[in-house]
Specification:
The chain is of the alpha/beta class. It is 44% helix and 17% strand. The protein has two domains: 127 residues, Aspartate Aminotransferase, domain 1 (Alpha-Beta Complex); 229 residues, 3-Layer(aba) Sandwich (Aspartate Aminotransferase, domain 2). The protein contains 16 helices and 14 strands. The structure holds pyridoxal-5'-phosphate. The site of pyridoxal-5'-phosphate has 13 residues, from helix 6. Keywords: Pyridoxal phosphate, Transferase. Belongs to the class-II pyridoxal-phosphate-dependent aminotransferase family.
Length: 388
Amino acid sequence: MPDTERTWNIAAQLDDLRAQELWRELRPLDEAHGLTVRSGDREWINFSSNDYLGLAHSQEMQAALEDGIAKYGGGSGASRLVCGTHRSHVTLEEALAHFKGTEAALTFSSGFAVALGTIPALVGAGDTIILDKLCHASLVDAARLSGATIRVFPHNHLDKLERLLQTAQGRVLVVTESIFSMDGDAALLKEIVELKSRHGAWLLVDEAHAVGVLGPQGRGLSAALGVDQQVDLHLGTLSKAFGLSGGYLAASRQVIDLLINRARSFIYSTAPPMHLAHALTTMIDLISSRRGDLLRSKLHTNVGQAVQLLKDIGMSPPAVQAAILPVIIGEASQALAASARLRDSGFLIPCIRYPTVARGSARLRITLSAEHSVSQITALGSALQAAL
Ligand SMILES: *Cc1c(COP(=O)(O)O)cnc(C)c1O
């Protein structure tokens, strides 16, 4: 009998993760309503969610979902090319295209699926993808899947980007996030747009952490900087500020038509339930409305307060502030211990380690929401000081 335990080595792999302080586990929560999360009789204030505007638990969300369920029921039944495209998906995509200022948009079941479908549909062997070193795993995996040559520039390093552009072969796609998910800082989008235009490359910007949060009507960092019309491919998630789940790619009509024909994570995946599309259309209206502006203004006030607290305890927050404030600690064991101490004092703040960030740069990742109160943020400041 072959010794499969030896071949697969699962126990040894798990032991190895534990030994390196890289072990992760899922912690069940009994209740997560707004910013308070509960497990048994314990309760924490959540500073780890990407629901930046607090829409996930809003009355508007509840009402839109209930309305959608009453109208459309449960699942969609099949992929959109097979079963027919429901009007609710078309309406959502028209609203997204209008919101992002593009001709068209296509929705996917997650932001991760957008990257996996889009990048390999547009570039392949003989082409070149140039990524910022800190790009999200979905962008890296999509680039690998495409078969194109992959080049990486150090985070926001424009000289290196330019040198890579000079020698790139085939179709050239530059890929960056606008607000970086684990560092909370911003890409130098204006300069990147200028470089990619000069070298005839295309640019994909992942605005997962900027839509809803930055720019006029919450349209993202590229709109805030006035370069959105030069971005060729706008990628975003519907799972963060939009408060629900899913992802989108907004671009020209031709690009979207090509994706409908080629993006495998779109073609071979069941369409998201119609009530989600219905509720998301309402969320776009809300995010781009006066009420959206008020929520953003509250969020930025909260971020400002947290930034000041971090400065007071000797930390240096990112210069362009969206809603992510990392506290870089270094060693995974120390960051884990700090996260555990914060948990003991009633705050949910995750420790982010390798392979999500580079070894030796383990950190606490604080995310703010429009829903946090002044006193919750003040309390966080004291707890942080005690935990570090
Ligand atoms: C969260 C995230 C995604 C993936 O979006 P999901 O909808 O959660 O799958 C993609 N890019 C970045 C930068 C993200 O932070």
